[in-house]
Amino acid sequence: VQLQASGGGLVQAGGSLRLSCVVSGSRSRLYAIDWYRQAPGKQRELVAGISSGGSSTYSDSVKGRFTISRDNAKNTVYLQMYSLKPEDTAVYFCRYRDMIVETWGQGTLVTVSS
């Protein structure tokens, strides 16, 4: 299984970005995708997750501002980010997990300027 994350960039505070995580090589439809982020000097933290059935969870820090969704036809999970804050600046990673496999994608950098 391979993951390709994209969509990061530089945005002003209050702006929006949409991250994408494309899944390839999975033999199962029953997989979950989580988005994590890691800011400089900080531990990686879970931001949002979506199950194979579409149930989503969010960290308190992004609840109400971020939306995770999936398009199974495109094998893609999105993280729509609104009302971005400088503290959202981090490298964002997606993680695939099914009953057997867990895989991380490469990160995509999100920088929010004040």
Write the layout of secondary structure elements.
Blueprint: E1 2-6, E2 9-12, E3 17-24, E4 32-38, E5 45-50, E6 56-58, E7 66-71, E8 76-81, E9 90-97, E10 102-104, E11 108-113
Parallel strand pairs: 2-11
Antiparallel strand pairs: 1-3, 3-8, 4-5, 4-9, 5-6, 7-8, 9-10, 9-11
What does this entry look like structurally?
The structure is a single chain. The N and C termini lie far apart (37 Å). The chain has strands at residues 2-6, 9-12, 17-24, 32-38, 45-50, 56-58, 66-71, 76-81, 90-97, 102-104, 108-113. The mean pLDDT is 97. The radius of gyration is 13 Å and the shape is globular. 0% of the residues lie in helices and 54% in strands. It has 114 residues and is mainly β.
Shape by Cα distribution:
globular
- Which sheet architecture does the biggest sheet show? 7 strands, mixed
**Helicity level:** under 10%
Record field, number of beta strands: 11
Our count of helices gives 0
Radius of gyration: 13 Å
How far is the first residue's CA from the last residue's CA? 37 Å
Order of helices and strands: EEEEEEEEEEE
Query: What kind of oligomer do you see?
Result: single chain
Bin the strand percentage: over 45%
SSE class:
mainly beta
Mean pLDDT: 97
Residue ranges: pLDDT <50 for 5 or more in a row? none
